[in-house]
Amino acid sequence: MDRKAYIAEQKEKRGRKTVLVFPIHYPREVLTALNVLGVEIWGPPGFPRAPASTHLQPFICGIAHNILAFIMAGKADVVDGILCPHTCDSLQMLASLLPDFKLTDKPCFRFRHPKGKSPDSKSARGFYKAELKGLLDKLEPFFGRPSEAELQKAIGLHLEADELKLKLLDQRAYFTTNDRAFYEVLRAGEYLWVEDHIAMMKKLLESKSPEPVEKRKPIMVSGIVPEPMDILDAINNAGAFAAADDFAAISRRIAMKRPNPDSDPLDALTDMFFARRGCTTLGTELEERANLLLKLAKSRDCRGLLIYNVKFCEPEAFYVPDTQDIFKKAGIPSLYMETELEAEFSGQASTRLEAFIEMLEQPS
Amino acid sequence: MTISRQLQYALIKNVAAPLLVKTDAWKSARSFRAKKDKPNPPFGPRLESYIKLKELMLEHYFTGRYADGAVPVAWITSGSPVELLRPFGFHIVYPENHAALCAVRRRAKDLCVHAENEGFCRDLCSYARTDFGSVMSGQTPVGRVPKPDLLVTCTNICQTALAWYKVLARKFNVPLYVFDTPFIYGEGEEHDVDYIVAQFHELIEMCEKVTGRKLDQKQLTYHTQLGCECSKAWGKVLDLCRNRPAPMTTFDAFIYIGPIVAMRGLPECLSFYKFLHDELQDRVSRGIGAIQNERYRLLWDNLPIWFAIRDLSTAFAQGGFNFVCSTYTNAWAETAHHFDPNDVYRSSAKLYSRIILNRDLRNKADLILKLCRDFQCDGAVLHSDRSCKPYSVGQYNLADILNREHGIKTMILEADHGDPRSYSPEQGELRVKAFMETFQ
Ligand code: SF4
Ligand code: SF4
Questions:
Q1: What is the pTM of this model?
Q2: Is the ipTM, as predicted for this complex, more than 0.85?
């Protein structure tokens, strides 16, 4: 079932309203607790951009352009609101542009999170919790207010989903499926109701082989989002597979530690936010992040690192040279590629990728 | 800190720098006197304040060369709460200010290329690339930039500055404090202020750790108060351009902005702006304009195109167009009114978080309209700055509003504040000409 039909079905059969969500970090649990379907929009590639270009300069990334084009084409008319996490300079401004210049008549809920703060920063934790409260207040007139039990239940469901995601990622080499199909399951949570997503991931998990089956070269993939998803086919066709993931759309959003089960829900959500692996858009410490990635890459025997960045994405691009440097020193070669989020993965990009993968060592 | 470095620094600061500055000032004064009464078309007479500015900046950068190892050195972003660092005796370096200087002196391109060769993507802000290029190559037009003991970045200007300083922290292996000022939609929230106030205390703690000194509260009050007075004095300077003809162009103001960025909270900054104010006031009372024939008045939005200031100011002045205000120069004056000496922390939290770059586009539209009204602008030039996304997004719509709803003619000028490779002077000139023709 495609997204549109799924959203319509959710509305009809479950009475679920829909909120369109900008990337990247936001408390999905709050929407679930409100019985609201969150549908993330990562700038669907290939969308005609012309109408957005009269509002955004060409040096703003493809995700922002595509989001705006999508909304301006009326594709978001079915939603009941737009949630805009404070991800980067471009999305921060888009979150202002939309309502301030009346490019949408949907209510826009802005959600800010702390930047560049360590998990033990009291001030940052206090701010995050206050923002959660603020978000609940802003959503209330449109969707009501969730009870504590509803919030707890939603937290439990998303923790379960995150654990499944981690399990799948950890055991990627045990699946015969290709990367595209594997990532399609992981990414389905961008629009599926959490329980449906859990069911889908469980199903995939059941197909796990008893022994590792992947014979291709293991690599680590990093970036904002694997779009267009042809990139994954290109990796497979060139003789490698995504053995370790560091996409912001996927593993950077997983809480690596469970919160204390007795915590009040907002405290638990705060713990979960600060328990994420770290992300360029959160201003995570550079060396710490790169070392963490290195550890993960080594644990999966990765032969190379592919950084697949969205063109004009500054937060991500700043981290690249140091990350590559740290990997190089550890003997892991890397390749930096950019995507404009066009409909297709270019032939030239394929050739570069092939050349890179070709020179990587075969796993023993 | 070593005693020999401290002695050397004291000698430089108290003897060599003043001597150098005096000699330079004497030379400049002589050349100024020679040119003073000579025609300077299409501009009005030269300002003596420029000599003072040169003295101030020369001293700042010259003493800076010897600062590390003698006094604590902090590198900070332009929007950081510098007043908090003053009581600890830091020598302050503003990489943005330094990068702007590199651009004015046409050194930025090579530094950017150096950074790019080290893997930094060309789409990153050119201030950051210039800074990386300078750090990695050791090249600078100011002789030498002292190494930092502390880095402070503040998200009130952008999140670019956050990632930029993360890179610096690794390069220098020194502590970094991220001063996080949540972006303000509408009027902001009380918990934003709580968050910022808590961070003032964290930053003070970090300064105490780095310098081994305890905060002197009296000194803090003194410098915050002074910082606020500096901003107000700068605001008064800018306000003089409400007069017709305006005694200063915005292009001049881009140059005179140096002290309010780099020396806020210091007495020499305040006295400089008083001097500049008096000189401009004198021009106003004598009806002297910054350009000879002010026919139209314009607003500038976004950062200057540092490497093209001279060419652009001449082209506009020749057509009788004077830039009388800008959102950029205004940014260092616009929030000073929030300061309350009886509630230093909470009022400073507002002062630092409510600047144009940290607020939504509704606020920016209102501000531009107010400036256009107050300064009686006939048109506006919006510099769409490839490097600065937070400042540039929304300009297409703003231009439309100004044009259609308020009859203010606008032009979007695509360029970059620091990297000349992203600006075509020929095309720029054609666009400027075409824009000016619409006023005939
Ligand atoms: S790709 Fe980068 S710049 Fe674009 S929206 Fe995502 S985080 Fe922001
Ligand atoms: S020019 Fe813009 S992007 Fe660059 S540091 Fe300044 S505010 Fe940030």
A1: 0.96
A2: yes
